[in-house]
Structure formats: structure tokens, C-alpha cells
Design brief:
The protein contains six helices and ten strands; from the N terminus they run E-E-E-E-H-H-H-E-E-E-H-E-H-E-H-E. By secondary structure, the chain is α+β, with helices and mostly antiparallel strands. The longest helix has 15 residues.
Length: 186
């Protein structure tokens, strides 16, 4: 990785797989607020469309209609990351049916700001909050369409524990596999 520093110009990092340089601006991570609803949905749609997944209508994903009830008021958390006032990253922590086990969900980073550490910041803050909430183990899942996520999670200490054909019929017909990961947090 080549880093070029210039006076009064943000750091620029060149990634070998990218045609353009990416500006790195600080990420502000905070808890979701109701005013974020449309921006969070837009980030989800954008991130999923890049990997060829049609997210359909908003009502299809009930948790997006009630993030406060699904996550914040139900033993979990939902974080957003902002750069210059724009939400570019997000992630949720959900209670599972097993005592002390939480699930990381809805990890998304805007495709234009990936590979600069924003996902890592969101995940680390979710892990810290999970510990405060009494969780000792976190699980998460992703599809084989999300190549970056498949590499990212093991680097963050989440070994793959199993792989299966997607339970969603439209994805299973396409041979989409779901990888499940797990980490004991301390």
C-alpha cells in the first residue's frame, strides 16, 4: 500500500485493485436515530445492488421499518458511520434466542468508501457494546456474493463455522451459499 501525504490535503491511499485513489476522511460512529431511516435504507440498497442483489421494496425487510424496536429496544444496537454528514457505514447487533449470544447483522459500507477501515470501526464498536450488554459470543452470516466480507470476517477473528445453501429459494436456485461465522468476545 502506498501512502501519499500532502500538506492540507487528506491522506490518499492507493489500492492495487482500484483505478482511483480514495480519500480517507474520519468516520464518526454513533447510534442509529429515526431521522437516519431513509439514509440507512439507501445504503443497504446501494451496497447490495453492487453485488447483484435486488433488495426489493422496503417493507420486505421488516427490521428496516422498525430499527429502534428491532435492535435498540430489544437487547441490541444499531450503529451508523458518517463522513462529512453522510451515512457511509452501518451495522446491527441482535439478540438471539440463546443466552449470551448475539448476532451481527446489516453490516454495510458504501461501495465508494470500502477498504479504508470503516467496517472494522463499526464492527469493533458493536463488539464492545455486545460485551457491555452481557454477550460472550457473536455470530454473523454472509453470502458467497459478498467476497470482501468473506475475507474480512476471518481477519476480524470470526472463523467460518459452517456453510450451507441459502434458505431463500430465489438465491438457492442460483446456487448462492451462506457462510456462518462465530467469535467468542472478551
Amino acid at each position: 500500500m502506498q501512502v501519499v501525504l500532502r500538506e492540507k490535503i487528506p491522506k490518499m491511499v492507493t489500492f492495487p485493485d482500484f483505478r482511483e485513489r480514495k480519500l480517507i476522511s474520519p468516520l464518526t460512529v454513533r447510534q442509529y436515530q429515526e431521522k437516519d431511516k431513509d439514509a440507512v435504507w439507501a445504503l443497504h440498497v446501494r451496497a447490495m445492488s453492487v453485488i447483484g442483489v435486488n433488495t426489493g421494496k422496503k417493507g420486505r425487510h421488516k427490521d428496516f421499518d422498525s430499527i429502534t424496536d428491532t435492535y435498540l429496544n430489544n437487547g441490541g444496537d444499531f450503529l451508523v458511520g458518517e463522513v462529512d454528514g453522510k451515512i457511509v457505514a452501518m451495522g446491527g447487533l441482535k439478540k438471539t434466542g440463546t443466552e449470551g449470544v448475539g448476532e451481527i447483522v446489516r453490516m454495510r459500507v458504501d461501495p465508494d468508501t470500502q477498504h479504508v477501515g470503516y467496517g472494522k470501526q463499526i464492527l469493533k464498536k458493536l463488539e464492545a457494546h455486545a460485551l457491555q450488554l452481557g454477550y460472550h459470543t457473536l455470530t454473523l452470516s454472509t453470502s458467497n456474493l459478498q467476497i470482501a466480507a468473506l475475507a474480512f470476517y476471518p481477519k476480524m477473528g470470526y472463523p467460518e463455522i459452517r456453510k450451507e445453501l441459502s434458505p431463500i429459494p430465489q438465491l438457492a436456485e442460483r446456487g448462492i451459499m451462506i457462510s456462518h461465522f462465530q467469535k467468542v468476545i472478551k
